[in-house]
């Protein structure tokens, strides 16, 4: 639970740094991913502090929804699926520009990895819960 919380906290701090310090406004799909990630910091933090092994019931749905959105966003960004909407436009907020790479990876890819990691870290609690 602690590892999942640290991963959610890192992702949230990264998103806040990009938005507040770097001044980069997120695109629509990045906003949706933030909506799924930000509550995970609170849910997983309280669960880790209290030793609540049943918090996966609240956290896993959020991380799964976030993973679906981040996966969809990543597939659009890579060009593997057509974009009925343009998540990162030239004239609006973009998460795909050269300045929006972290360690050489686009932000949606990192978001997908974070959500997948949180989901995988929560799976052992599903099996152990009554």
TrEMBL record:
Keywords assigned by UniProt, alphabetized: Chaperone, Disulfide bond, Electron transport, Membrane, Oxidoreductase, Redox-active center, Transmembrane, Transmembrane helix, Transport
Keyword Coiled coil attached: no
Family annotation (SUPFAM superfamilies): DsbB-like
Compartments where found: Membrane
Main subcellular location of this protein, as a coarse class: membrane
Pfam families with a match to the protein in the record: DsbB
This protein's record includes keyword Electron transport: yes
Transmembrane region(s): 33-51, 58-75, 107-126
Membrane topology value: Multi-pass membrane protein
Entry-linked InterPro entries: DiS_bond_form_DsbB/BdbC, Disulphide_bond_form_BdbC, DsbB-like_sf
Entry similarity comment: Belongs to the DsbB family. BdbC subfamily.
Name recorded for this polypeptide: Disulfide bond formation protein B
Organism: Devosia rhizoryzae
